[in-house]
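Bench notes, afternoon.
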Amino acid sequence: MEDKINKKAALEAILFAMGDAVEVERMAQALEMDKEQALSLLKELEAEYADASHGMAILCLGDKYQMCTKPEQYETLIRLCHVPQKPVLTDVLLETLSIIAYKQPVTKAEIESIRGVKSDFAVNKLVEYHLVCELGRLDAPGRPILFGTTDDFLRSFGVSSLDELPAIKAEQVEEFRQEAMEEAEISV
């Protein structure tokens, strides 16, 4: 029992010290235990931190875990640090982010083809906000950059994987296409 408590405390220390999301496999190796044992202890920690008496939470981000501040504590931290809140995402940024989330890996040209307008500013802002990152380059002429979402995207939208994003129905896609066609005819 004491070994289990020590291992759980060690996992807590790893998550606190690392700051970023850490793969379960890496934590298990560091603690010289198998992945299933580490995962079981992480689930226990996650449940303990879910209690309202804690200002921290343990988040699962796919096959990674991270310790973070609970959202209800943000205002207090902002007052302490005098750091302004991040700007709200505009409709343009949300639209671009949605395209990247659902189509990733995706190039700027593909994003612009879907949106019908240049998207340099939106993509650059999303990279600046750490919601989007470069995933590599497409093996095509010009070797365009491929973009995808980050762990910060998952955290910000409260999902642990892209599989949790809502599915888009075919009739919604058709409705969006019709609206885009009507807008294109109006602006011509």
